[in-house]
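Recap from last week: sequence in, structure out.
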Amino acid sequence: MTPSPIASLARNRALWLLCAFVLALVACSDDPEEVPPETTAPDTTTAVILDTTTTAAAPQVDTTAPTTTTTVPDEEFPGPTVLAYLEEIRNIAVATGQVALDMRAANNDWDNRSVTGVRYPDTEAALVAVRDRTRQLRDAIGLVEPPNEFGLPVEHQTAWEALGEMADAAVEALAGLRSPDTGERRRAALSDFIVAFERFNGAVSRIVDIIDVGGAIDLPTITVATTVATTTTTTAATTATTSAAPTTTGATTTTVAATTTTTLSAVVEHSIVDSGGDSSDPVQLWMTVSVEVGTTKKQLAELGARLATEYRLSRDYQALIIHFVRFPEGIATLGRWTDAPHGDWERAGEATKGDYSTHQIVDETIEKDWSLLPTDEQMDVFRKYNDYRTAYQIESGVSPPDSELIPLAAVALGLEEAAIEEAIDAWSAWVGY
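Predicted structure tokens:
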């Protein structure tokens, strides 16, 4: 019997459907891990995500880490940049000191031309060189950029301004040399130059102190020369001093026209035991300064110049007088040193505070004979007697002579009359009366 075509077609269709069903059932029962890569690859981005993470994150770590480590050395002071700055300042400072010496020498030689034989063209050329060199140094320090640490920019600015003032003064000194006056303008410019030089020195010293690596910069001591404009007087005679190195002895008074002196370091050990005049009008500063044993007249004058310079920089005055002593009980037993308008303390009101163009230095310091210095024991007895005498005068209202008071003091103080008399004589010999 031949099967019907329709029946055969139906049977084949049923078999095909059965096979498809079995295959589908097997596929649904397989473990997902066995899925071929082709079926899951389009949905897999794991490799791409890892690549993106490593390439993006790793460079950020690498670039930020070096930035953190490079800032650490900046916190260490002084670093290479600061030390390089100090070396530049050192070179400029040394060159400036030499220019200041040249400025002083040119003026000194010209004022002493009758002795030195210097000619006008020589002096003019020397001052032109000082002017040009000072301008170069001013420009050089202006090109140096200071580090920002610990106030260095402020001190650098001060040094630069001071060099500018020195350059201006050098121009004025040259103009003064060429002017028809008798040297007043040139000497005033020299005074301004030296004051500016001291200001420069102060700024450089503070820069060195801030950086604090040792090795201070040694700059020269510059003073206005006491030359033709100097008169030396003694009790016996008055002579004009024209030597470039005048010699003074005894109770000598030396007057220097329109001068300013500067010293970079303390000359002798000293202490200011008393002072006043800050609030007066005009401002007439005075001080009593005690110095160490053996101080010479020259050292006293240098100390006076140093103190005057310090006071000019720290406060303005119209006149200054310094009384030098060894013992506080004395009154200018080692002499006086004055910086005032035209050298006259009483003419302080003629000057404006801070303007020292008319100031003159009057050096009345004394070359003391230190062999006359009372001993400590003599000074102890003298002070006890002095205290007794003061108390006696207050209580009694009278002031008897020593011949009458010494016996009373000896009893009251438990001292020998001879010891008191010896102490009084030693003091009188020391102070000169």
